[in-house]
Amino acid sequence: NKGSCLRTFSILPLRLDSTDYNSPVFTISPMNGTIKAYSDLNLNVTFYPPRNDQTNDSEQQYSAIATVEIAETGQTISFNAIGTAVCLNYEITQLDFDFGQLALKSKKSEQFLVKNNSPFLPVSFNIKQVAQFKFNPSSLTLKPKESKNISLTFQPVNLGVYNIKTHISFCGGIERRDINLIGSGVTTLSPDP
What we know:
Elements: E1 7-11, E2 15-16, E3 26-29, E4 32-35, E5 44-47, E6 59-70, E7 76-86, E8 90-92, E9 96-103, E10 108-116, E11 123-127, E12 133-136, E13 139-142, E14 147-154, E15 160-170, E16 175-186
Parallel strand pairs: 9-16
Antiparallel strand pairs: 1-4, 1-6, 2-6, 3-5, 6-7, 8-10, 10-14, 11-13, 11-15, 12-14, 15-16
């Protein structure tokens, strides 16, 4: 606002370039408010590309026209919001693990595979470590078309039943999958029926 008067603004509904998606792709905040005389106001535009089930990692572009309307003058100011998204293209062979009963301080390991299916882009991941269970490696960046076996070890140091949910985050948290872990720490193993 380069004038000496207070101005009230509001953001008009976004005009999307396509109706192929149902949820908002862009959000703007604040949606309305006042601008003091001789001052600026930042608008935050957030990009939320829809999750699609593409099996390739081609780029998908989105755009919308945003319009700011000044109530006192009727002036409108339009700007383009543009974003490009690439679908993550990976596989995980297993997300549910049941280690059964295990004597304290003994260990049992299983493996699962994380595979980057993209022929072009790397995929990084990070697995949140939790007590009694250890992932190795717990973080890594996979090159295009690379895969890695992940070792998961259950080593109970306390008595009890563990039914824990942790997660694997991809590309800095862009996408997240839950991993379900079950196991019991016992003093002596019960015989199988």
